[in-house]
Design a protein that fits this description.
4 helices; single chain; mainly alpha; 104 residues
Length: 104
């Protein structure tokens, strides 16, 4: 997500809009987030628990924030959407780092 966020911001600064390749990469990233969350739920069911409870908050936020933004920006503002999605990708990357530090 960090690379995707940087790629999107670079494209935005060059005057680009949300293209199919970037949108597809966001979809792949979202699928990977969901797969990681399913693995986390499996670990939880097997008895592994994170050190801090905020770990759950980071995971849930990472799963929900991109689809929520997609539902809001769909078919509107393709240029601004690229900037917002890119910033969101950097936010999700931050959530991932933070989640790793609270997971134990």
């Amino acid at each position: 997500m960090a690379v995707l966020g940087c790629w999107g911001l670079f494209s935005y600064l060059r005057g680009g809009v949300l293209s199919g390749s970037i949108a597809g990469t966001f979809l792949i990233g979202q699928v990977l987030i969901v797969v990681q969350s399913v693995a986390g739920v499996a670990l939880y069911l097997l008895g592994a628990r994170p050190v801090e409870g905020t770990h759950y908050l980071y995971g849930i936020t990472a799963v929900l924030v991109l689809p929520f933004l997609y539902s809001y920006l769909r078919d509107r503002y393709p240029r601004q959407g690229l900037a917002i999605y890119s910033l969101l990708a950097l936010f999700i990357a931050g959530l991932a780092v933070r989640g790793m530090t609270t997971g134990g």
